Amino acid sequence: MLQSIRDRAQGWIAWVIVILISIPFALWGIQSYLGINGETVTATVNGVELTERDLDRRVQQTRMELRERLGAAYDPAAFDSAELRRMVREEMIREVLLIDVSQRLGLRVSDQELKLRILSEPAFQRDGRFDNEAFQRLLQLQGMSEQQFVEQLRRQLTGTQLIRAVVASEFPTRLELEQFQRLSAQQRGIDYARFVAADYLSDEPIADETIETYYQEHAERFRSPEQVKLDYVVLDVADLAKGIEIDEAALREAYAAEQGRFVMPEQRQVRHLLIALPQQADDEQVAAAEREIAALRARILEGESFADLAAEYSDDPGSAAEGGELGLIEPGMMDPVFDEAVFSLPEGGLSEPVRTRFGYHLIEVEAVRPGETQPFEAVREQLHEEQARAQAESLYYDLGERLATLSYERPDSLEPVVEELGLELRQSDWIGREGGEGLLAEPGVLSAAFSDEVLVEGNNSELIEPDHERLSAVVVRVRDHRESAQRPLETVREEIVAALREQRAQQAAMAAAEAALAQVRDGEAEWSEAMAAAVIESAGLVGRGAVLPEAVLDLAFKLPAPQSGESELEAVALADGDAVVVRLTQVEDGEVTVDRDGATLPEAGLLAELAGRDLYDALLADIERRAEITREPLSVDDDQL
């Protein structure tokens, strides 16, 4: 058959075959090879195509940001993949619309502003300064080039400009300010009766069918958490320093080179007497202080006790009771003028009046303790720690680089790291996303342990530095993984029974509250009589910030204002399961203080921002309504779930 085709494929037949093959190849095949229009489009916005590749990158970026923000609380299962992709795509559509509007309005973001924004981003900093390595690493993790990141940031900042422009265009009217003040400072008279659920607990048996139904309806509540066991290695500068020995000669050499560090400064035992002066003292006040301090100095020279006079006349409350005693002071501890006077006096000497920013002082030097150099033996341990730490830090950076390289090049095992670097392979017990103890409670470690790269793909983690203030790094890998699983009914039966009894007690408490409420509304009983089975609380006249159960306060400020001499009542359940009947007895509006310059009130800025946000949302909705937007069906790959 093949030979027959070969024989016939000559002349005009062969040309027909070639033409038939060439036409589709020319129309579609070359584009596939060259990549022209070959990417799948997920949406088109006013002619601008958003590709699946761009969407994938933004979804991955969003996941990383969520993981960074939530730390150990991040749970991929909590973010439905399809819904996340839909939300990210809508955000990308809005960005395109905002860029279009911003460009038509002439809004621009300068290169200098972009640069400053990148340099000040905390995620790109180490020790408070921009770290290009951290910047490049984050871009690599997000699968972005510098140009892509800069353009994305430019779009975001341009959109922010539009938000600011719209928000700044709004301002509240005088009537709106008055209404806001009336409502925000409004007070309401509140009483409430609490029907405690615990009072309605019952030991009545619960049917197996009810237990089974509750178990099925609350299946998520009875799932054991996802857990992992980890292998990990730790590189810590403190551990490295412990293993470093410094020979005696090196320590003595360091002591000789830095001997000035170990000189104990001269210290002096000092008393003082202060006649205080205000900062802006006039000539008359200064003259009076000078006369008083001179008279006191003369009395001391005549033999009176410095301590007694300081206790009686000194304006320094901290030292007067101690006879002016300041204790031992070193150079640089006091005001410079005071300091100079102290260290120019001989032992037992009395100063002339000394003026500082506090007033006039008399100073007496009781004793002088000369400075001395600490001997080598006294500082040997300190020198050893410093030298060992310095060597350990140098070793840390070298080993850290090798650790990062080895764990990356051999992602399926930590054994090469242990063998080549001599680090200890540590193992954890089962830990969940809430973390374990010590290092295993650090958000960065937990985030890496439960990341797709480590948990799903089975790779070693990146080099993690949990605390940037400390030279310590860790690499983890998952040794064992236990999926979240449904706990058997038998193991949670008692828990369900307790929950059902609590649920019934709460329902009974609410039923009692509603019955009591009906009695008051129908006029069958007075408030105190109908609420006899409850705990009655009288909050009095309170504002919106009162310390009351949230549900009580929320309901009380939603009830309509009662008619004169009447009250408004309603029942509500509290967060703890108790039921309350709330009684609103009066409403007093807040004071209106708006004047002609109402725009300067704090409320004006808040209301302007709220109105601006509403206007911006309406503007964005209108822009989207007028735009030509085509959304393709979303695709969700298995590895994104």
Automatic annotation (TrEMBL):
Keyword Membrane appears in the UniProt entry: yes
Indicate where this protein resides in the cell: Cell inner membrane
Give the principal location in a single coarse category. Answer: membrane
Q: Where are the transmembrane segments?
A: 12-30
Q: Which intervals hold domain PpiC?
A: 265-367
List the Pfam families: Rotamase (PF00639), SurA_N_3 (PF13624)
Gene3D superfamilies xrefs: 3.10.50.40, Porin chaperone SurA, peptide-binding domain
Name the membrane topology term.
Single-pass type II membrane protein
Keywords, A to Z, come to:
Cell inner membrane, Cell membrane, Chaperone, Isomerase, Membrane, Rotamase, Transmembrane, Transmembrane helix
Which family is annotated?
Belongs to the PpiD chaperone family.
Q: What is this protein called?
A: Periplasmic chaperone PpiD
Give the source species: Marichromatium gracile
The lineage, from the top, is:
Bacteria, Pseudomonadati, Pseudomonadota, Gammaproteobacteria, Chromatiales
